[in-house]
Amino acid sequence: MSAVLLLIVAATVSGLWRARRKGWRDPAFWLQPFAALFLAMTLSPPSIPIDGSTLTVLTPGASPEQWRALPWFAPLATLPGADAPLRADTAPDLATALRQHPQATALRIVGNGLPPRDQAAVGERALRFDASAQSGIVALEAPSTAKLGTQIVISGRVAKPGLRVALHDPSGAQVDVATLDGEGGFRLSTIARAAGAVQFQLRAFDAADALIDKAAVPLIVTAGERLSVRYRAGTPDADAKYWRRWAQDAGLMVAYRAGLSEGVQLSADGPTDPSDALTPDVLAASDLVVIDDRAWLQFGADEKAALLAAVERGLGLILKASGPLDAAVAADWATLGFATTPLDAPASLTLDHRLAMRERADFTAAPVVISDAANLTPLLRADDGALLAAWHGQGAGRIAIWRLLDSYRLVLAGEAARYAALWGDTLAQLSRPLPAPSARPQLPSEAWMDERATLCGLGAAASLLSPDGQTQPLSIRADGCAAAWPGESGWYRLQTGADTWPMFVRAADDARGLRANRDRVATGRLRREPEMGAAPVKIEVPLPRWPWFFAWLIVVSLLWWRERR
Amino acid sequence: MSTDPALIRRLARLRHAASTRAVLIDVAAVLPLAAGLAVLSFSLAGGVPACALLIAATLALIASAIRHARRHDQGWLLHQLDAVCPSFEDSSALALQPEVPSSPLAALQQARIRNRMSALLASAAPDLRAPWPRRRLQGLWLIGLALIGFALLLPSLRAVLPAAVSTATAQQPSGQGTQLAAIRLAITPPAYTALPSRRIDTLDAKLPAGSQIEWQLTLDRDAEGVALSFHDGSRLELARDGESWRSTRVIDAATLYRIELRGAVALADDRGYRLDVIADQPPEIVVREPAQTLTVIHAAQAEWLLSFEAKDDYGLGDAELSLSLAQGAGDQLKVTEQRIKLEGDGDGRSRRYRQRLDLAKLGYAQGDDLIVRLTVADRREPEAQQTVSTSLILRWPADGGSLSEGMEGLVQKVAPAYFRSQRQIIIDSEALLAQQATLSPQRYARDADALGVDQKILRLRYGEFLGEEFENGAPHDDEHQPEKAAPDGLGRAEDVLAEFGHEHNESEAATLMDPETKRLLREALNEMWQAELQLRQAKPGEALPYEYKALTLIKQLQQAERIYLARSGLELPPFDATRRLSGERDGLIDRSRVLDPRSDDGSPLPALLDQLNGAGAVDLAPLLAWVKAHPETADPLGLLADADSLRRQPDCASCRRALAARLWPLLPAPPAAVDARRLPDAAGQAWLDGLSGARP
Question: Any idea where the domains of chain B sit in the sequence?
Answer without folding.
Answer: 5-145, 173-278, 286-407, 422-487+498-566, 605-666
